[in-house]
Amino acid sequence: MANRTIREAGVVKGTNPQYLVEKIVRTRIYDSRYWKEECFALSAELIVDKGMELRYVGGIYAGNVKPTPFLCLTLKMLQIQPDRDIIIEFIRQEEYKYIRALGAFYLRLTFASAEIYKYLEPLFNDYRKLRWMNNQGRFELLHMDEFIDQLLREERLCDIQLPRLQKRQALEEVADLQPYVSALEGDLDNMSSSESEAEEKEKKKEERPR
Predict the structure, then answer these.
(1) How far apart are CA 196 and CA 190, in angstroms?
(2) How many Å apart are CA 109 and CA 70, to the nearest integer?
(3) Is there a contact between 154 and 108 (Cβ–Cβ < 8 Å)?
């Protein structure tokens, strides 16, 4: 009973939300100590508390045996299907970066393509460091913007096959998305304007009669 999707949950990507995680990975999670001791009877509100305790992201490690708490909480969210407003609050989280990462990962699994770009692309401006647990059980350094880039570009992440994501260009062509404008472009424009103004001032100085 504890491993079943709640009765009120809607279909996601044409299937039971938990089936977005492959059966062998789900089994590893169900058998894990963290799932049995920390995820039992968790509500959407309590997941926030557990998310605040996260210290790294990752999938299955130690010879494909142990799931990370990050992966366990992802499956729990698929099981109980929190309101979308809660997920959006997760990714807007400024203080707890691993809650933002958790919300972004869940959003990538469950939201429509246009919404994924809408909510995740602004996170390219988040350069905070994350700890990544690799398959050997060793920590690596990852930045939030790199994690978001992987969510938008990779087919598989944290040992989960990511649902198909429509190309951004296709969504722009049907007006579901506005063209992407990087914050870096604004910085470059400002830099270019400053340089132009400096060149103009220098030119005026040279043109002054001596």
Answers:
(1) 10
(2) 14
(3) no
CA distance 136 to 191: 44
Residue with tokens 């570009």: 153
Show the tokens assigned to 62.
Answer: 């130690």
Residue 209 has pLDDT above 60, yes or no: no
Could you give the maximum distance between any two Cα atoms of the chain, in Å? 90
Alpha carbons 114 and 176: distance in angstroms, whole number: 6
Q: What's the whole-number average pLDDT of the chain?
A: 88
Average pLDDT over residues 64-90: 94
Are 17 and 5 spatial neighbours (Cβ–Cβ below 8 Å)?
A: yes
Distance between CA atoms of residues 73 and 176, nearest Å: 31
Burial of 124 per CB tally in 10 Å (0-12, 13-18, 19+) = middle
This prediction has a pTM of 0.84
Kind of pairing, strands 66-67 and 156-157? unpaired
List the one residue out of 102, 74, 67 whose CA is nearest residue 88.
102
Name the residue type at position 138.
R
How far apart (Å, rounded) are the C-alpha atoms in residues 170 and 148? 20
Residue type present at position 180: Y
Q: DSSP letters of 57-96?
A: EESEETTTTEEPHHHHHHHHHHHH---HHHHHHHHT-SS-
d(CA 52, CA 48): 6
Cα dist from 204 to 194, 201, 208, whole Å: 15, 5, 6
